[in-house]
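Human: If only I could read backbone structure tokens as easily as an amino acid sequence. Underneath my words sits a plain record pairing an amino acid chain with its backbone structure tokens. Take your time, and here it is.
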Amino acid sequence: MSIFRLLLLLCLSFPAFAQEWPTKPVKFVSPYPPGGSVDPLARILAAKLTESLKQQFIVENRTGASGIIGTDYVAKSAPDGYTFVFIFDTHAVHQALNPNLPFDPVKDFAPVMIVGTAPMAITTGAMKPYRTFADVIAAAKARPDTVTLGNVGNGSLAHLTTIVLNQAAGIRLVPVPYKGGGPLSTDLMGGQVELGMASTAAQAQHVRGGKMRALVLTGDKRSHTMPDVPTLREQGDRRRGPRMVGHPRARRHARADHRQAAFRIEQGIESSRREKDARRDARDGCRRAEPRGDAEVDRRADGPLGESRSGKQHPRRMK
């Protein structure tokens, strides 16, 4: 049912660059707290770009209100092409759910690139009794309005997916909003909330560590980070799976101007990728590193969060 997307946005209206961008430190704003999927990805990207573009990229956390606080900070920042914000699907619904939104999600920003995508997982703490999603359905029907399902904020994709899931299954799971995936994971592992829904990028390490149990995925196909976890589709839900998609954004009125920033960021990512490939090839005893083809480079649209086009597909098991 649901896929997380991470997107980079730039605050618009900055002037044309007189010199090749960047000529001073660049700020990446993460509108969610550490411990989720946005913050670590922003820091990984910042570190790689600092190395490849020879300029400092700084990550700053400005959290709260389902990402609105950090995004509003970028909307009101200097429109000079040096302040970006990482957003995901909630950016598309903020205006519909919040008539007093302090910025225009479309007019105040320019999309730069999709950083990555990943399915969401419904998980539970290791101490909880749920072993399958069928167990959750049974408990929710036996105890309506008592089984809690945490999400990363009101209006988030996980929150909206919970509403749709309740309608489809004829149950009443109770949505519990958190400030981000980090606080949600903490309460899941501590048993303060029964279930949680967040991207696999935020939860995979806790599942592998045995502190959480993943029950079902919301995407159309299984994730290579959780290959043994079935999808809602396999459980009989035929809706198209929602994904989290992440984008960095920037401030508006950039038009052609912001494209140089986008191009240089892509250059930096590709340079870092090629250096990594060269080191790998050297370790393998190769005489020279082969450049990637266009199809392989285009994997950036699927991003480092998980679901690559070349990833292994797991057979669907119908029940």
